[in-house]
Design goal:
Layout: H1 8-20, E1 27-32, H2 36-60, H3 74-84, E2 85-87, E3 99-107, H4 117-133, H5 137-144, E4 162-164, E5 166-167, E6 170-171, H6 172-196, H7 199-204, H8 206-238, H9 241-248, H10 260-282, E7 285-293, H11 300-313, E8 321-327, H12 329-337, H13 349-354, E9 359-362, H14 368-382, H15 406-412, H16 429-443, H17 457-476, H18 484-496, H19 498-516, H20 529-542, H21 548-551, H22 557-567, H23 572-577, H24 587-597, H25 599-602, H26 616-620, H27 624-633, H28 639-647, H29 651-656, H30 659-666, H31 670-681, H32 704-709
Parallel strand pairs: 1-8, 1-9, 3-7, 7-8
Antiparallel strand pairs: 2-4, 5-6
């Protein structure tokens, strides 16, 4: 049973935060939800959990403690290390368990007016790092440590984390000490000699003037070097990447400037190397979490630019970035499909996202208890004025600083709960063993799951990350865990065949609704998903033209049959068990299938007593006697029942035959044929079309209106699907 005392969104935030702390960077998370308020609350919950877990690990760490960023010597020590030492990559400093997280909040809507939205992302990232490390350290690192040529890190066998910078086989710090000593001695001699001699003695001791000139000449070289260093430092402080990008973001000529993207990539490389340097200095890992919100509000071209930036700029193997794209997937996919010139004709929006996202996380719908809490909170908030709302009732998440505007906070307030401060128990070793055993079910040669994987490494990473999230969610929600092989099989099924699985879940949901209405008997928990799919596969085939872009995501259909029919006989019970823990399946696909199938339209209207058009799902499964029974309900003459039995006109025959042939066989009058055709065939009267296309047509794809106004059968152009058809 699920522990309903806990807020479900906080559970999802906790599960995702625990997964992000385990996966290797870089990673791109697709946080999918149609509700921006829930997304913002989830992001806050994730940030709070990650920071709390990082603090807990540091407090319980038994080795050398990481450097405190609030200490007085932190900044000075970092400057000394940058000037006189070079970091060494060792097994010890590369295996730190402590992590420091830096959260970068980027609202794409604030930069929507720019021609290059991705440039605003880079600028926001640089500004946040400056606030976290100080404005001096990044320019100082660029001057003293960064090399223009990319050098791959090499793990060395050493116990030391630093080696001194050397000039002529001498440490730089020792040469600096010698130079400072010489300067000090010369300065003392000059002062002493200048105070002891008189004007007459100056003429006699002309040689002393030559000594002074020589001393000044010697002091000039280090003075020139110091001035040059200070000049470079001031230049980098003023002309930083954020300043340059800010000046060029709204310049239309910048988009035509060759090499600008490459220059920004170099700046991202500097930031990555700087963070790697600070990891050795702070004695812990550093991860930068990019929280990208409101991207689905921007134009298609700008959306594609941001996704390309994430894919190109943040895809380095050693990149320390965790990108979280919080969007409404349905709107985002629609926008990308309309991005003319951004995607090739063969490239679909979901395929484009799948190449970037390594951890899809679809936020499930609110449970009934959460809906009650949200509704009560909204009603309570609207019933009181803004002045009467006590400030101590405004919920907050510990250690999280928000910079949103007041109206955005007011919008999110009804969904934010004080329950977000609930601290979950840390992941136990037993749970880690379960997760590892689930991985073993896939890569073990004795099993069969590995044969269903594709050669795409991004897909493999999605499966690995999704398994971890699923196990954690089910453990926290107190759901009975199945065998790890079944759990891994479910995750693979959702990743490889999202459209077919969404169809199965939609069929189960519709059937459960009919059970609640008393029209059908309860669903057997032991019924296999393949049996559910087999019963409805003909209906799915008939609407194939309308769901073509969704079916393109699915893998081999023969492998799908082998998966569910032979190797992994998942049941309805398994589907119900994984309902709230399936986060790697985009729910917008199921919603689209539900809309096409017409379940939402007929949910409260289709009944035994109502003489309205029947859905395709009902007509397909009708036998000859069922058709006759419907004719009795329509109060048509008994002679037509004999004709139907004689010609064996069942539901499939009615749907796949031409309308003219059916009319010729039945020999009905005009009024009787109208009643029969509307009820069984779904033919709309020409003067009152039930469906109209709501979106403008696109030459490169089948429009929604085209899908609805033509039946999938190529030889029946006169038949039109009605509002209750699937």
């Amino acid at each position: 049973m699920i522990n309903k005392d806990l807020p479900s969104d906080n559970i999802y935030g906790y599960a995702l935060s625990q997964t992000l702390m385990k996966v290797a960077a870089p990673v791109t998370v697709g946080l999918y939800s149609p509700c921006h308020s829930r997304v913002n609350m989830l992001l806050k919950s994730i940030e709070a959990h990650m920071k709390n877990e990082a603090e807990r690990k540091e407090q319980n760490y038994g080795g050398i403690k990481p450097r405190s960023t609030s200490s007085a010597t932190y900044f000075l020590s970092a400057i000394i290390k940058m000037l006189f030492y070079i970091p060494m990559w060792t097994e010890q400093n590369q295996s730190h368990t402590n992590v420091r997280y830096i959260f970068v909040k980027f609202s794409a809507w604030h930069f929507a007016g720019s021609d290059m939205l991705w440039a605003g992302l880079v600028m926001r990232l640089y500004e946040t790092l400056q606030l976290s490390f100080g404005k001096l350290l990044i320019p100082l690192y660029r001057i003293t440590q960064h090399e223009e040529e990319e050098v791959k890190r090499v793990i060395e066998d050493s116990e030391k984390d630093w080696r001194p910078r050397k000039i002529c086989c001498c440490p730089l710090w020792s040469l600096l000490v010698v130079v400072l000593t010489v300067i000090l001695v010369i300065a003392v001699l000059l002062i002493k000699c200048g105070l002891s001699r008189s004007g007459a003695e100056a003429e006699v001791k002309g040689g002393l003037g030559m000594f002074e000139g020589f001393a000044i000449g010697i002091l000039g070289f280090p003075a020139f070097g110091v001035c040059q260093f200070i000049f470079k430092l001031i230049k980098n402080l003023i002309m930083n990447p954020g300043f340059n990008i800010r000046c060029n973001m709204n310049n239309s000529k910048v988009s035509n400037k060759l090499g600008f993207m490459n220059e920004v990539w170099k700046e991202m490389r500097v930031i990555s190397c700087f963070i790697q340097f600070m990891e050795v200095f702070e004695r812990r890992k550093i991860r930068v979490v990019l929280q990208i919100t409101y991207l689905d509000r921007c134009t298609p071209k700008r959306i594609t630019g941001v996704l390309d930036a994430i894919n190109i700029l943040l895809s380095d193997e050693e990149s320390p970035f965790i990108s979280m794209i919080a969007v409404n997937p349905e709107i985002l996919v629609q926008q990308l499909d309309y991005a003319d010139g951004c995607l090739s004709k063969e490239d679909r929006a979901r395929a484009f996202l799948n190449r970037i996202v390594t951890l899809p996380f679809t936020v499930p719908e609110l449970c009934d208890i959460s809906k009650c809490k949200v509704f009560r909170s909204i009603a309570h908030h609207l019933s009181r004025s803004k002045q009467e709302f006590p400030m101590d009732e405004i919920p907050s998440v510990s250690h999280v600083q928000t910079s949103e505007k007041s109206e955005e906070i007011e919008l999110r307030r009804p969904l934010i709960s004080k329950d977000c401060n609930i601290i979950f128990k840390p992941i136990e070793e037993e749970l880690e063993n379960l997760i590892e055993s689930a991985f073993e079910c896939i890569y073990s040669e004795k099993g069969k799951l590995h044969s269903y994987l594709t050669g795409d490494t991004i897909s493999m990473r999605r499966i690995i990350n999704s398994i971890r999230v699923t196990v954690i969610i089910m453990e926290v929600m107190k759901v009975e865990l199945p065998s790890m092989e079944v759990l891994a099989a479910w995750v693979v099924l959702a990743d490889q065949w999202p459209c077919r699985l969404s169809w199965i879940l939609e069929c189960l949901e519709d059937q459960q609704q009919r059970v609640e209405l008393g029209r059908e008997s309860s669903i057997a928990a032991g019924k296999t998903l393949w049996e559910v799919f087999s019963k409805s596969r003909l209906e799915l085939y008939m609407i194939r033209d309308q769901i073509n872009m969704h079916q393109e995501q699915d893998g081999d259909p023969e492998l799908f049959e082998l998966f569910l029919k032979v190797d992994f006989k998942l049941t309805v019970k398994d589907a119900n068990r994984f309902e709230l823990a399936t986060v790697n399946l985009d729910h917008s696909i199921k919603k689209e299938l539900s809309r096409i199938r017409g379940s939402s339209a007929r949910r409260d209207t289709v009944g035994k007593e109502t003489l309205i058009p029947l859905p395709i799902s009902s007509v397909i499964n009708m036998s000859t006697e069922d058709v006759c029974n419907e004719l009795v309900r329509l109060k048509l003459p008994e002679k037509y029942n004999e004709v139907i039995r004689e010609n064996e006109l069942n539901g499939q025959t009615l749907l796949y035959s031409k309308n003219g042939e059916i009319k010729r066989v039945l020999q009905m009058s005009m009024g009787e044929w109208t009643t029969f055709s509307i009820h069984f065939l779904g033919i709309c009267p020409p003067r009152f079309p039930l469906l109209q296309s709501a979106s403008p047509p696109r030459p490169s794809a089948v429009t929604l209106g085209d899908c609805f106004h033509s039946h999938c059968h190529p030889e029946k152009p006169e038949r039109t699907l009605h509002a209750y058809d699937s």
